[in-house]
Amino acid sequence: MPKIILGFTGLAASGKEVAKKYLEEKYGAENFRFSTIMRDVLTRINVDINRQNLQAVSLCLRQTFGEDLFAKVIASDAKNATSDIVVIDGVRRLADIAHLTEIEGFYLIAITADPVLRHERLKNRGENLGDLEKSFAQFLKDEQQEAELKIPEVMASADITINNDGNLEELYQQIDKIVAKIQNN
Prior knowledge:
Largest sheet: 5 strands, parallel
Shape: globular
CATH class: Alpha Beta
Helix content: 40-55%
Radius of gyration: 16 Å
Distance between the termini: 10 Å
Number of helices: 9
Number of strands: 5
Order of helices and strands: EHEHHHEEHHHHEH
Number of domains: 1
CATH superfamily: P-loop containing nucleotide triphosphate hydrolases
Oligomer: single chain
Strand order of the largest sheet: 2-3-1-4-5
């Protein structure tokens, strides 16, 4: 059976990270995240890791080295992964999956959640500098940034959609059903 590669797409704080962690813990999935590359660059050059700086580094690298730069790296990582299930977190553009769609066993999964719920989750996790103080208006404004604009288009092309308006148990049940269905094909 080929490796299962699950690419997660969704707007900020929709539940991609939680789904990824569940797959790691329950199924031993290996994960790769698009933003890891940008976080590594920002850490190395001693610049704050916040949404604005992540977007700036992403744009600069893609403009300099090609729109599919991250897609090539992630596809190579997924192919070379040793686990049976691989999770790709943070698919934001169709170019991000250009090379992944060529790999047998790749599925694009959109994770949706209500904007009010997502805003609360973003504040609670405090992943990036400034998240804790972010107003709902600013949260919605962030979704109009370059890095976020293509996500709805990517979500529309997903093979599977998960609604994450419920609790963790409901999310986990949806994930288990997806994995079982893929494994039984």
